[in-house]
Amino acid sequence: MIHALIHAMAGAILMTIRHAGYIGIAALMAAESACIPIPSEIIMTFAGYLASVKTLSLAGVTLAGTLGGVAGSLAAYALGAYGGLPFLRRHGGKILITPHDLDLAHAWFARHGEAAVFFARLLPIVRTFISLPAGVARMPLVPFILYSTAGSALWCGALAWVGLRLGQHWRELAPYMHGIDDVVAAGLGLFLILAVRRHRAGRTALRAQGADSGRGGKQGVADDSDIGR
Fold first, then answer.
1. Contact between residue 182 and residue 67 where contact means Cβ atoms under 8 Å apart
2. Greater model confidence, 10 or 29
3. How buried is 172 (Cβ within 10 angstroms: 0-12 exposed, 13-18 middle, 19+ buried)?
4. Where do the structural domains in the chain lie, given as residue ranges?
5. Which of 19-23, 93-97, 126-130 has the largest mean confidence?
């Protein structure tokens, strides 16, 4: 059942790119940058593979991924700026967005300031959520777009190049792989396993914090009563 679901999701990603081309790449990358956990590693690597077989061009897939990433980043920025963050904290778990993911992005932005928008674009997980704290902080829009564009271009270009090289050496790799669909499905399966584990770990940590707070509150009451006596 889970195996079939992963293959169906992988098939949907591949079909979107195969049939919609550059527009499909841009749409998927926009969704990923708008806090929807679709692995950009799979999107852009497969796009690069298509460039290796001359279905698309390396420059074209890099540009499409970059434009989609910036569009999704602007959507996440608006979500942070206009109060959507509490909604994600309450309901993000339904799409595997953990409070830890959001806190990690906030910590990055707090530590590195506006430059975090660029550097976080080169890191898994954080890149998906970094636009939210930028929106909450109302980072000036022009620097935000410039940093997002630069970081997205580097990330998309690097992944597309990996996919291109993979495609160029496909004959050598073929004996170890059944097909590109299986490779994508395996990558998606690993991503989902890690996302679920991270989500469960985040929920466990929240429960532990709640329990500690409860014990602290009870201890505080006991201490107050001791003082009264």
1. no
2. 29
3. exposed
4. 2-228
5. 19-23
3-state secondary structure of 56: coil
Q: Are 156 and 127 in contact (CB under 8 A)?
A: no
Task: For 74-116, give the secondary structure using H, E and C.
Answer: HHHHHHHHCCCHHHHHHHHHHHCCCHHHHHHHHHHHHHHHHHH
AA identity, residue 215? R
Q: How far is 45 from 68, CA to CA, in rounded Å? A: 15
What contacts 126, CB < 8 A, 6 or more positions away? 104, 105, 108, 120
- In sequence order, the 6+-apart residues with CB closer than 8 A to the CB of 157 are 62, 66
Q: What is the pTM of this model?
A: 0.71
d(CA 75, CA 220): 44
Model pLDDT for residues 34-46, shown as the tens digit of each residue: 888 788 888 898 8
Phi-psi region of 194 (alpha: psi -120 to 50; beta: other; left: phi over 0): alpha
State how far Cα 139 lies from the chain centre: 21
- Per residue in 64-98, is it b (16+ CB within 10 Å) or e — as a string? bbbbbbbbbbbbbbebbbeebbeebeeebeeebbb
Q: What gap in Å lies between CA 212 and CA 84, rounded to an integer?
A: 28
